[in-house]
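Example record used in the benchmark description.
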Amino acid sequence: VAVIDLRDFVTKQIVKDPNVISNHGSTFVTPNTEYVVSASQYATPLGWDYAPISEYKEKYRGLIVLYKFDREAGRIDMSQSFAIEIPPYWQDLCDAGKLVSDGWGFCNSINSELATGGVEAGNPPFEAGVSQRDTDYLHIFNWKKAVDAVAAGKAEKLNGMNVLRIKTAVDEGVLFLAPEPKSLHGADVTPDGKYIVVAGKLDPHVTIYSFAKIQQAMADKKST
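Model output (structure tokens):
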């Protein structure tokens, strides 16, 4: 991630994620630029580790990274940055909530099938394999609760960065998933923060989520 000063258009800082090899849902900022949000694209073994593709479901994961931005210094503060572990789907574009949904973030995804290709082994062709199901998942995360969980010592260090593991993120009310039409490309929050709009590649519809209904479903502990 590069930090560019718009007063002189000079790159002031470049930071390298210590745990993610590929990024796509990047770079989005929270409303007051507290954090720069960057999500992985393809699932990988975290920490630049290696695992065979046959262990994809067990060893591969994604991350939503929140880089802390120091406005006074005009730099990302890696010491206060952290990540949220997410399932090995392929995360796509993200957006931060605003106004009524401030404190939340939204990333959509593809490949809930966990397909890895391999036609030579009798698997569906790659693009067909990642498009078999009718739904993928909108990742809904409460970054303010995540900040609190990290401050409370509930994260694990991975290559020097705090990472909230999936179970911890779920237990702390940080991470939720909601079904969405397959293979979407984009999640945009309306200016009033009341709705999340998703649309994209394989489904011809635009789907609009009500933030109020999402919150109610969470309160009722019902599936969205």
